[in-house]
Specification:
Blueprint: E1 5-17, E2 32-51, E3 65-66, H1 73-89, E4 94-102, H2 113-132, H3 139-149, E5 161-165, E6 168-171, E7 178-183, H4 194-200, H5 210-227, H6 230-249, H7 260-276, E8 281-283, E9 290-295, H8 303-312
Parallel strand pairs: 3-4
Antiparallel strand pairs: 1-2, 2-4, 2-5, 5-6, 7-9, 8-9
The chain binds (3R)-3-hydroxy-3-methyl-5-(phosphonooxy)pentanoic acid.
């Protein structure tokens, strides 16, 4: 007898070669490489309400119900639409209540759409496969379905390193674990959403050659990370987030996310590298906050605090 409650967890991820620009069904304009952030995850819970199709459930409910209060109406709609899409693929007519919670606050400046869509996709496939008595599909398949709900969520299926190109995301063998530090510059809602950014960058003249630049950076970055050439990795990631932000600034009409404090932090990152001959990889998403990735050291390492103090100096 299958249970009537299922839960699934998925991590957020941060791209070091950025995904920007997309076609139908979130097929990306260029290849990207990401690192999953295991400490930042979403947990989704699905509870079976009953069967639809006959008009209503035993509770009189006609559609799936989303119960988490902290989501906007638009976000709820997107989430329900994605669950509907998976049910259609699996030819399933039951109804669920969905609860979703993040291990990190909304104001933490980390996009939650990757982890939440990956967790919803995983949970829906687990629940429906269980109810239908079939095995859960492959990670590759679930990742490609998740992509349709939120592009970058397809990378959250492959930890810790993921390469995503076209309709396929996959693990990459890089024997290196990182420590993530977010320098929060502004937790506020962005004026231009990432969905709008994907659309608007198509007007930038710098889109010419963007896919080729990302592709060659990805190959070089994988080699640099595999061989432990950390300074080369820093340089390639630096070039790539600037490349993406240059697309924003040269779109018509132009837009941008960097704030004075963003530039201050980036300046400090470069100063840190100059002073110590090593430092963190820095990257920015479609927002003003700075993500830093450090090579993981022992438990006693206080590199994150050293950088915080360095920024105050
Ligand atoms: O998945 P979306 O549509 O939120 O795209 C996010 C894209 C960036 O975060 C800006 C870059 C990336 O590769 O994650």
């Amino acid at each position: 007898m299958p249970s009537d409650v299922w839960t699934a967890k998925a991590p957020a991820n941060v791209a070091l070669v950025k995904y920007m620009g997309k076609a139908e069904r979130n097929v990306p304009h260029n290849i990207s490489l990401s690192y999953t952030l295991e400490g930042l995850y979403t947990e989704v819970r699905l509870r079976l309400l009953g069967k639809s199709g006959t008009g209503s459930t035993s509770l009189g409910v006609l559609s799936d119900v989303f119960t988490s209060a902290e989501f906007s109406e638009l976000e709820k709609k997107r989430f329900l639409k994605h669950l509907g899409y998976i049910k259609k693929i699996l030819n399933f007519e039951g109804l669920f209540t969905i609860t979703s919670s993040n291990s990190f606050p909304k104001a933490a400046g980390v996009a939650s759409s990757a982890s939440s869509f990956a967790a919803l996709t995983l949970c829906a496939f687990q629940a429906i496969s269980d109810l239908q008595g079939v095995s859960i599909p492959s990670k590759e398949f679930m990742s490609s379905i998740s992509r349709v709900g939120s592009g970058s969520s397809c990378r959250s299926f492959f930890s810790p390193w993921c390469l995503w190109e076209g309709e396929k995301a996959e693990s990459v063998d890089i024997p290196l674990l990182l420590e993530h530090q977010l320098i929060l510059v502004d937790p506020g809602v962005k004026e231009v959403s990432s969905t709008e950014a994907h659309r608007r960058v198509q007007t930038s003249l710098l889109m010419n050659g963007r896919a080729a630049r990302a592709s060659s950076r990805c190959s070089d970055l994988i080699i640099a990370l595999q061989r432990g050439h950390w300074d080369a990795a820093f340089q390639l990631c630096w070039e790539d987030f600037w490349d993406m932000h240059a697309l924003f600034e040269t779109s018509r009409p132009s837009f941008g996310y960097m704030l004075p404090k963003t530039l201050y932090i980036l300046h400090k990152v470069r100063e840190f590298w100059k002073k110590y001959g090593e430092g963190p990889i820095a990257t920015l998403d479609a927002g003003p906050n700075v993500h830093l990735l450090w090579k993981k050291k022992g438990k006693t390492s206080n590199q994150l605090q050293i950088f915080r103090d360095f920024c105050k100096s």
